[in-house]
Amino acid sequence: MDLFMLKIMTNPIKSLLGAIAVAAVMLTLTACQSVYKKNSRGELELFNGKDLQGWKHVLEDPSVPAEKVWTVRDGIIVCKGEPLGFLYSEKTFTNFRLLVEYRWAPGAKPGNSGIFSRIHTPYSALPACSECQLMHGNAGDVLTLQGMKMAVDQPRYFSIKAHAKAGDISGVKKLEDKEKPAGEWNQVEILALGPKYQVWVNGTLVNEVTGIEVISGPIGLQSEGGEIHFRRVNLAPLP
After folding, report:
1. Tell me, what's the pLDDT at 8?
2. Are 169 and 143 in contact (CB under 8 A)?
3. Which helix (H) or strand (E) is 52 found in, with range?
4. Cβ of 166: how many Cβ atoms within 10 Å?
């Protein structure tokens, strides 16, 4: 068989393989983009109200199944609070406006939790990240964990060195307490633009923080003691 005939026979095969490869990539991209539905305001609904599609998890005790900690009931994510860990979104974000609704389990003692963002790898039960604190009585504080950067020359700044699980912590206390009584629904809004974070609790601006490390990372919902419920996790990506 001469070289000319061989090229005629092999080129269609190469073209077909190339087309298959392109189609596979496009299918993967489409699948990633369709994990989160957009609402009428253009926000990504990270929680679909039915199941935990689009979320992964990390637990301090990896032998514990995720469903022992997080379940979906009546359109609500129910987090038991133990063991320590977090759910995180499959997609990563750098700048965003995030809206989360949460409550402590009605009739139970309120506990501790948080909303993570810009989570670093490698992941641990308390990862390097920026956290909007949800601990009862401290909702609206902003922390960085495991040595993640935050400017120190700002009002209400504090630090904790060499925490047993969270490493070096930097934080800024909230301006005022706007959390509702335990068992009632709260709304938290976080605006992350470059190194600046702003936090609203139930419609009131309670914190402004500067100098936070700018990286891309997932959004996380924390398990850290006390049953907590989430029913809305909407995010608008920003440039």
Report:
1. 39
2. yes
3. none
4. 20
Q: Indicate the residue type of 19.
A: A
Supply the pLDDT for residue 18. 47
Q: Give domain limits for the chain.
A: 1-34, 36-238
Tell me the CATH number for domain 36-238: 2.60.120.560
Distance between CA 25 and CA 18 in Å, rounded?
A: 11
- CA–CA separation, 93 and 78 (whole Å): 24
Average pLDDT over residues 173-187: 97
**Phi (first) and psi of residue 136, to 5 degrees:** -55, 125
- Decide if 132 contacts 76 (C-beta within 8 A): no
The pLDDT tens digits for 188-208 are 999 999 999 999 999 999 999
Residue 209 identity (one-letter amino acid): V
- One-letter amino acid for residue 105 of the chain: A
Query: Taking Cα atoms as reference points, which of 133, 113, 101, 102 lies closest to residue 199?
Result: 133
Token pair 């359109």: residue = 75
Phi, psi of 68 (to 5 degrees): -80, -15
CA 40 – CA 25 distance, rounded (Å)? 28
Q: Which residues of 62-77 are buried (b: 16+ CB within 10 A; e: fewer)?
A: eeeeeeebbebeeebb
Amino acid letter at 75? G
pTM reported for the whole predicted model: 0.86
Burial of 181: CB neighbours in 10 Å, binned 0-12, 13-18, 19+: exposed
